[in-house]
Amino acid sequence: MNNIIEQNRHLNTAINDNDSDQNLKFKFSLKAKNPNLQHIVIETTPGIRKSIINNNYLNIQWNRCRCADFISIIRCFNCLGFGHFKKDCTAETHCSHCASTEHNHIDCKSNFKKCINCEKYNLRIKNPKQEPLDSRHDCFNNSCPTFESVKSKIIEKIDYGL
Questions:
Q1: Which of 80, 90, 87 is nearest to 138 (CA)?
Q2: Among 63, 20, 16, residue whose Cα is nearest residue 39
Q3: Rg, the chain, Cα only
Q4: In tens digits, what is the pLDDT along the chain, a chain of 162 residues?
Q5: Global pTM value
Q6: Can you say whether the dihedral through the CA atoms of 115, 119, 125, 130 is positive or negative?
Q7: What b/e sequence results for 4-41 when a residue is b if at least 16 CB atoms lie within 10 Å of its CB, and e otherwise?
C-alpha cells in the first residue's frame, strides 16, 4: 500500500503521518467482466477517500485505475427485494427478467422485461400526482430507479467524518 501512496502525490495532503501504515487497507477483490482485470476494494480514512474520489483515479504500478465508492447492497435472490438474503426470505420467488412467479430467470422465455421492485413501488403509490416508475427493465439493471433509491439511502447514512 505504501507504493500507492508514493505514486499518487495528490494523497500526500490527506495522509496522517502517525498512522501511515493504517491509511490504506486492502479489504478484498472482485472479478471484473474482463477476466484479465479485477476490482480492488480498499478501506481508507475520510480525507484520503475524498482526495481519491475528487481525482477519480489512483496510479498503481504501471496502471491508472478509475476509482469510485464501493457500496454494498444486500439483495435477495428469491424475491429480488433488498435488505435480506435468500436464506431468510419467506416471500414467493420471482423471475429477475420478467417478474413472473411461475419460473426463474434461467427458464424465462419472455422478451418483455419487468422489474418486480419497481412494480411493487408503483402499487404503493398513494399520491395520484406522483409519476410511476418505469419498470420495463430487469431487476438487476444498474439504472433501476428502485436500486438507485436504495443506494442513495445507504450513501446518506454513511458518515465520512468530514
A1: 80
A2: 63
A3: 20
A4: 777 888 888 887 777 655 555 678 889 999 999 999 899 999 888 888 888 988 999 998 888 999 999 998 999 999 999 999 999 999 999 999 999 999 888 899 999 999 999 999 999 988 888 899 999 999 999 899 999 999 999 988 887 776
A5: 0.72
A6: positive
A7: bbeebeebeebbeeeeeeebbeeeeeeeeeeeeeeeee
Contacts (Cβ under 8 Å, ≥6 apart) of 134 = 118, 145
Q: At what angle do helices 116-124 and 145-157 cross, to 10 degrees?
A: 80
Give the sign of the dihedral formed by CA 23, CA 29, CA 30, CA 32: positive
Q: What is the spatial distance between Cα 39 and Cα 32, in angstroms, rounded to a whole number?
A: 6
Residue 98: other Cβ atoms inside 10 A? 20
